[in-house]
Amino acid sequence: MRKLALAAVAIFMMAAPVVAQAPPTAQNIIPDNISYATWGKIQAIDPGAGTLTIMPDNQPAIPMTVAPGVNLTGLEIGEVASVHYTRTVTFTTAAPTAPTATAGSVGVGQAVQNPGELTKTTAPITIVGRVVKIVGPDSVDVVNNDGGGVYRLKTTQPARMAAIAKLKDGDSVTVNVSPIIATSVAK
After folding, report:
1. How far apart, in whole angstroms, are the C-alpha atoms of residue 186 and residue 125?
2. Residue 14: which pLDDT band, with cuts at 50, 70 and 90?
3. Is the CB of residue 129 less than 8 Å from the CB of residue 92?
4. Are 108 and 125 in contact (CB under 8 A)?
5. What is the CA radius of gyration of the chain?
6. Phi, psi of 112 (to 5 degrees)
7. Is this structure's pTM higher than 0.90?
8. Domain locations in the chain?
9. Could you read off the pLDDT of 134-145 as tens digits, one per residue?
């Protein structure tokens, strides 16, 4: 009788509902369009490659690509310079039937695990994912196009909330993040 009771308890426990965990949440990982100016010490400069890294006071270093026509002549490592710079971010959505792979793209998981890389790269980044669930006006669950984990992307930015409102389950989402581009440099 006791064995029968234990078997009944074991069967009941196996039949109990399993509560699924929510996907990992990443908030505001996609950087904004920017147009800023800063001044600081030149940490690295390569006129041939068209790159510059500036270290503002009490801030992390900012690596950037130099726009065509910006003159780096006469600038040296350790000098203080004023730099104006920009970065653009574009979002593209497509229907579920759109192609899912983009050459050179970064998966959603990689972007979520290394969000700082999106803000300090000197190369363009493309992030591609597929919407699996609209969670609310500020959140969407996205999966890498090639499979893998589901990630909840959450925003506090009104413009991005408006974009989420237009999405549907199955839509393909592509985000293009330009490198930071120095548009002027002066001593």
Report:
1. 28
2. very low
3. no
4. no
5. 23
6. -70, -40
7. no
8. 25-31+88-179, 34-86+182-186
9. 999 988 888 876
